Amino acid sequence: MTNTVANAPMSGYRPVTIASGVRSSAERTPNKIALREGARELSYRRLVERIDRVANGAVHDLGLRPGDNVMLLAPNCLEYVEIVAGFSEAGIAVATINPRQTAREITAIAEDCAARVILAHPAVAELVRDADFAAPERILILGEDYENWLAGATPAALDTVADERDAFAISYTSGTTGAAKGIVLSHRSRAMTFLAMASEYGCYGPEDSYLCVAPLFHGGGFAFAMGSVFLGGFCEVLAAFNPEDVMRRLNEGPFTGTFMVPTHYHAILAMEESILKRYRRHHLTSLISNAAALPQATKEKIVAQFGEGFLHETYGSTEAGIVSNLRPPDQLRKIQCVGHPFPCTRIRLLDGEGQDVAPGEVGELYSNSPYLFNGYWDKPEETRAVLRDGWVTAGDMARRDEEGYLFLVDRKKDMIISGGVNIYPREIEEVLIRHAGIAEVAVVGVADDYWGERVKAFVVAAGKDAPTPEDIIAFGKESLAPHKVPKEIAFIDALPRNPAGKILKRLLRDQG
Asked: At residue 276, what are phi and psi to the nearest 5 degrees?
């Protein structure tokens, strides 16, 4: 018998957009508080109304059409979710930009994505007005200007909504390896991510509360916060990070989940022991780390502070979404590990010829899942460079053990070749960070006439009594092979990082 089912969607098909989950939650619990920031809060009913006003205002007042882009520059604030969800519901992608960018960087990104409208927080209004924009037709400043615009729009759902495969956001990289690129993210990729997060972390149900600490302009920061609202939970948005304030809120509040980058954890653990002891009580079921490698020594301190059974170390990229997760029972059992593949994710480790490596061998990590990006905005060549037959890579090198657990070795671009031997900086960093006099360390390869590259360590000292370079080198020799021991030590006040907490090793290498 011939299968005559058409390829077209059935009549009951409904696209899954960023706003669709919020709308469903509002129908279930319209009066429940969805979002809070300081003294301001929004119920689900009110949040959906404002999302609809944004969508209608975008189409009927601003004259935007599907495929157009707008740009949002704001720190964490209550309006973030409604702006991203509202514009994207009308098929208009929102470029979410770090509000600490310079006027030159803002101008370059606005022109790159051809932003027709810019929405800006009052804190960056002057910077935006002074920028030499060529593309934007209108600038809306959050506050009175934005609220007046919103009030003039219809609070009703649009007759047509975006295709779930279309972009809801363009997340710009922070330029760890060069100029920023726009990462195009689809509704479907993030909606699928939210559902997988609920399965993996267990803190994304309607009864859960989430504390938003990470910046919302970052792909991961937005996803971990938006997942809570998409699935009917409660989310409190912190406008700024303060380590003691975060610990106090986790101690006193109902929060069952939060996501922080390693920089946040380091700041928390650097507080006086008397403060940490005061805030050891919490209601968390999941404590998530992502965006940069979490040193094993830091993991051990986190577990000591918060207890066993809470910490997840998640590996991924904005391009690939969440790739893997190391669950709480394995944090102290699997050293320097990033766990098993995330739900619905397949992983391959490939050698330079594109062949799968054997267990225990190092290869470049590629993943395939429903969470992949659509590509880099208007950069087809750069997109093709990170894809191989539908699999995407962030350029990370990894190995897999006999139990199928993944271990990141280092970034392909950070690997040092000294005397023809491959050296992975992360291995050296994991050793040196255990020195009592070292707070943070980054290892890079710098040019050397004889060896090609030599190993150099940039060190942030812990406390007033900094170790000497000779002390650090001697400490490294206790655990490292001679060719891996740093030949040079440079002390630095702080490691250069992007907003996601990733160390900008390119800047360190440039110092020579």
From this structure: -60, -40
pLDDT at 122: 96
Range of the domain at 245: 241-369+391-411
In whole angstroms, give the CA distance from residue 117 to residue 452.
49
* CB-CB contact of 124 with 99 (8 Å): yes
Q: Is residue 182 part of a domain?
A: yes
pLDDT of amino acid 512: 66
Low-confidence ranges of the chain (pLDDT < 50): 1-2, 4, 175-177
Concatenated DSSP letters of 389-458: TTEEEEEEEEEE-TT--EEEEEEGGG-EEETTEEE-HHHHHHHHTTSTTEEEEEEEEEEETTTEEEEEEE
What's the pLDDT at 9?
62
Per the domain annotation, does 200 fall within a domain?
A: no
Amino acid occupying residue 171: S
Look at residue 147 and tell me if it is in a domain: yes
Find out whether 135 and 110 touch, Cβ atoms under 8 Å.
yes
Across-strand partners of 184?
170, 375
DSSP code of 468? Answer: P
CATH code of 59's domain? 3.40.50.12780
